[in-house]
Design brief:
This protein is mainly α. Helix 2 crosses helix 18 (about 375-395) and helix 13 (about 275-295) crosses helix 15 (about 325-340). A two-stranded antiparallel sheet has the order 1-2. The protein has one domain (about 15-395). It is built from 18 helices and two strands.
Length: about 400
Amino acid sequence: MNRSPLYNRWQRLPEAVRYSLWIYLVTRIIYSFLALLVLSAVPLSPKYPQAPVHTWLEQILIAPWYRWDVEWFLRIVQDGYTVVDGRSSFFPLYPLLVRLIGDLLGGNYLWSGLIVSNLALIAALILLFNLVEARYGRRAAKGTLICLALYPTYFFNFAYYAESLTLLFTVGTFYAMDKQRWPLAGLCASLAVLAKLPAVVLLAPLIWEFGRQRRALFSRDSLAIIAIPITLGTWSIWVRYMGTEAAITDFSSPFGVLTPLLTPSWQTQFKTSIVWPWQAIVLGVQSINVALELKTVPGLFKVVYDLVMVAFFALTIPLILRLKDSTYLVYAVASFIMNLMVVIASTPIANFPRRMMMVFPLFIVLGMVSREQRLLRLMLLPAALLLSFMVSTFFFLWRWVG
């Protein structure tokens, strides 16, 4: 039987590329179809910002993803940073890449935003497949990508967000550490931080693995350890001295030294602060009463969903011990603690589920365990599908889901 040249070229691609592209295409089509279905059934109110689209193709591919952070990123891309609003809350790597590619497209930053997010996702999936396959085999790699694709906030990787870039350089950091290429690990960690602040947690596994591999302290490898502090410090100084914006530090708080990590705009515009992890959980439980008083289904769902995800990670992170890699466990625990500590006044742990999507070791172990435990697979699959459907539906309808 003669195969077409296109099929032959496809078969010659590495397994990591083929499987990653299948995962990407299937999930992209599913979420695009869901967006069209939702927006056809529930037309958006004119009170919500409308995507500046002009063709049917843009209406399908761009409009459903024109939500929330896209407006902040577009302001940065078009006008740069300023101290008059909350733009300095957003880190520069994503808008920089969007600007560079958008200029090549004649200033079409809507298309360039999707191009950056989606290409970064494809690259992250391929790199994650290679990382897991090298350690645990091909079946584990495939299971990891499936579990990641089933995660309720996975769809953010398609949108105008920096999630896919953060995921790419987070996986790249661990891949470089596995190969003992420490300068590359430091570069990837720095780029992850320049994509999103929560990536600063990569400092914990970097230090741990550096010690575990017994690297020489006074060598170029140690640059990987100081890469994140230098990157974050440089960005923080630039933000604070680019205008009249001054650091806001509450020295009555035990985290007074840490609060300058949150840009002043982040503290004032989005009412963000740092608290103890258990305080964040208490605040999350208390916010249930607020949601009940407001009597809004999306608001109540969001609060309960956040708390459920906190419980989910608290129960499943210990499973990472099965991977027999202490660096993965250090990364997961540090991410859990840090992502709980950064809270928003109105919805204390609103961003927790989205930030925890970067903890890829959990998807590795869930892929392994669910393959072995049929009952667990039957429990997790419907729950993941239902949550993915609900969270993405609220997102398409301009409801805040983190």
